[in-house]
């Protein structure tokens, strides 16, 4: 099994030296299932790297939660509004299972980026990854291939099924929980 640092290096295409330099300046924090890391309407300018656990970001509209991303071991998580603009967040970030993460404030992170071109490049890769993640989510919302989206999601992050209620996975896939149940039943009954 790949280590946390190896996952970070692979995901963000950066050397272990830079990842280790960054982690040395971060605080290890522990969260319990259902903790809200970021609450809609509040400011949170921190960047988190998830060492263990699964988190989800979602927003409320008309009494309905819509999940916009999941993050797990070796991934960064943050409120774009708080991080980029020191603004009030439009999303919530919730811990789906007991988690350990590393945390750093935007101010401290900017000082690190100013000290090293390698660390600054890591920051650019973090933003690139965030943009790609959001664009993939937006594109998938118009896709009629919910089964394919589900299979890809579970292939990329199989532990979601263990820790995330199906209603949140359905929300992320832009389908109803009932549609997800039908998809899962078809997959289970199809010959392998």
TrEMBL record:
The keyword Kinase applies. It comes from the Bacteria. One of its GO terms (molecular function) is kinase activity. It holds the Pfam family cNMP_binding. Keywords: Kinase, Transferase. InterPro entries: cNMP-bd_dom, cNMP-bd_dom_sf, RmlC-like_jellyroll. Residues 14-53 form the Cyclic nucleotide-binding domain. PROSITE patterns: CNMP_BINDING_3. CDD domains: CAP_ED. This is cAMP-binding domain of CRP or a regulatory subunit of cAMP-dependent protein kinases. The lineage of its organism: Bacteria, Pseudomonadati, Bacteroidota, Bacteroidia, Bacteroidales.
């Amino acid at each position: 099994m790949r280590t946390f640092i190896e996952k970070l290096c692979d995901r963000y295409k950066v050397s272990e030296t830079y990842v280790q330099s960054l982690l040395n300046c971060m605080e290890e924090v522990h969260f319990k299932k259902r903790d809200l890391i970021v609450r809609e309407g509040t400011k949170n300018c921190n960047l988190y790297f998830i060492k263990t656990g699964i988190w989800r970001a979602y927003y409320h509209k008309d009494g309905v939660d819509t999940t916009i991303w999941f993050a797990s071991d070796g991934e960064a998580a943050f409120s774009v509004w708080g991080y980029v603009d020191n603004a009030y967040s439009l999303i919530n970030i919730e811990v789906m299972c007991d988690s350990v993460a590393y945390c750093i404030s935007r101010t401290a992170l900017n000082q690190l980026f100013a000290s090293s071109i390698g660390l600054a490049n890591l920051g650019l890769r973090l933003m690139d990854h965030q943009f790609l993640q959001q664009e993939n989510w937006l594109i998938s919302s118009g896709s009629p291939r919910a089964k394919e989206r589900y299979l890809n999601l579970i292939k990329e992050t199989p532990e979601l099924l263990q820790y995330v209620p199906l209603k949140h996975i359905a929300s992320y896939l832009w389908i109803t929980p009932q549609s997800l149940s039908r998809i899962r039943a078809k997959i289970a009954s199809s010959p392998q």
